[in-house]
Amino acid sequence: MRAPIAAPPEPVPAVPVPAAPEPPDPVGPGRRRFAVFCVLAVGTAVLFVLTIAVGSYHVPIDEVLRVLSGGTPSDPRWAVIVEEVRLPRALTAAAVGAALAVAGVQMQTLFGNALADPFSLGVSSGASMGVAAVVVSTGGVAGSFTGGLAGLGRVGVILAASLGAGCVLALVLLLSRWVRSAVTLLVIGVMIGSAATAVVSVMLVYARPERAQQFVIWGLGSFSATTWPDLAVMLPVIGAGLVAALLTAKRLNALLLGEDYARTMGLNVRRSRDLALLGTSLLAGAATAFCGPVAFLGLAVPHLTRVALGTSDHRALVPASMLAGAFLALACALLSQPPGTDAVLPLNAITSLFGAPVVITFLIRSRRGLQGVTS
Amino acid sequence: MTDSTIAPRPVPHRPGKPSPSPGGLAAAGLTVGYRTRSAWGRGARHPVLADLDLTARAGELTVLLGPNGTGKSTLLRTLCGLLPPLAGDVRVAGRDVAEETPAVLARRLAVVLTDRVDAGLLSARELVGLGRHPHTGFTGRLTAEDHRVVQWALEAVGAAALAHRPAAELSDGERQRVLTARALAQEPDVVLLDEPTAFLDVPSRVALTVLLRDLAREQGLTVVVSTHDLELALRVADAVWLVDRTSRVHTGAPEDLIVSGAVAAAFDAEHLAFDPLSGSFGLRRAARATVTVESPPHLGPLLERALAREGLTALPGPAGEEPRISADEHGDLTLRGDGAARTTRSFHELTRTVRTW
């Protein structure tokens, strides 16, 4: 019997925030934000430890904490499990969750579109295209998928994925100049995404069958495939993208009212857009390169965070989304390995099961807003 | 009525900015329009309004009027630097807009655009706070001074009570006030507003227009506003830029343009005629007959309007002339003609009777 530590994590952060409406109290919003940050930080830390503890082989919590703090566990196997398997997985989940959430925040503000995120607008598919190109071009390499990637260099994969993501993002951004309707743009994003997926499947025909199969499994999404050498590349890239997002919070705020207003408020709109484009491509590219195209996290986390915070102010929204993204990704990582079984559920199955209701709820609740500017 | 009262309200004075620089907004030899890219990479110019010399003075409400499709928005977008001019220049307080950096320009000039904004989850106060963008530092944090200016801007537009409401839940009139406050929070010398009253009901329109005039007068701002609300604009504006159908721009006080006939020329249509005396528009109907009226003074104009709708010109005349309509103090309206007399009790009854008379 395994200890019932893994109480089912709730998809929505259990944030004890006061429900709307806001009282006319100038201290209220600040206090509420502080509470949200505290809850998210504690929740993320708890889930981080849980993710390390839970899996096909259970490690007691106190032993996890002992290994994490540099001590020696009573059973040396636990050290190996924690350090070589579980810790990379937890770090990957937290980093990728934060990356996708912040990429989603940036894209939603950049497009002025509530439904924008790396996955919905095909950016993840673009990143897949980059990865597929690397997989095909190194088709002769044997061994595991990540082994093959290592052969060409992990930096190369991140670059290829970011380049693919950037190309799709730039294309969608260009189209968004003419397409004002949020829903139409979303459909275009889906189309671009399926076109990219089609290109990928054509490329895979020319890959060796076992590589193609690995690619398909990669495409289901997983936080478990990363190793320390992978993390050594991924974490700095994602870290840079996150810091860049934090530093551009003021620019993103100015873009909240649209590009024309931003320009008349003294913002260099083109530079801000390029910065956000670059940051989003890096974040989505790095996340996708190692974990596959992960659905819905980038879309749902910003909305949940906005509602929890009660504001769209990016100076609070960006850091809170990082925490909330890490929190939810860790929750998904936990759910994808149900305790007590050896089964590993595809990550995208989990994120979609929890993300789809969020999107549907959002669509129903803000139908008026999504009909575009003509209403 | 959802918005605050129409009564004139003292506008609080701006903190820390005692004397706005004089000079206002001036355009010289300005040609506005669009450039399109041709296959050869050369920009083809599509001028909409050409060779304009315009001045909007500090302390005055300048209203931009004109029929639809005459290029008002293009002109405003050029004035605020969102569109590059095809020729000529725009100066704010004597300095060329094109040569200013965006950040410096944003402290001199602020706008309220026609775009309907979807700011997501922002309170009205946060939305107004966005206007501090050109004044805040790298992180965008609002200082105590910034908060004071935001509060002033909210009070200046009478939106202090809305400060904690979510911006997305404001009514059209409230939102325009808050957007105006956002522009004021930039502490500009010049404010440009593109059809701010378009979605508003009549009391809100009057309130906003009067507010803009008061802001100009009391804060020494240069306010330029485009609108379709012709009669109100002609009543409230200090100066008018009138774009006519031939793309000429007439400038002057409202009365100047009425006297010169420019207003009538720009807006008269088949069924609409501008009456220079009342400064308002009336329905143009061919008079089919005249009728003599006598009435107490307060009913006279109403009787005239009701009869005009039926194609009758009302003339005051001595007793005895027929046909005649006389109104008494009780509101009874008596028609006399062809040796018959008929008394009606309401204007509606009167007009129906007149129609079959």
TrEMBL record, chain B:
InterPro entries: AAA+_ATPase, ABC_transporter-like_ATP-bd, P-loop_NTPase. SMART domains: AAA (SM00382). One of its GO terms (molecular function) is ATP binding. The keyword Translocase applies. Transmembrane segments: none annotated. Residues 1-25 are annotated as: Disordered. Residues 34-270 form the ABC transporter domain. Keywords: ATP-binding, Nucleotide-binding, Translocase, Transport. This is ABC transporter ATP-binding protein.
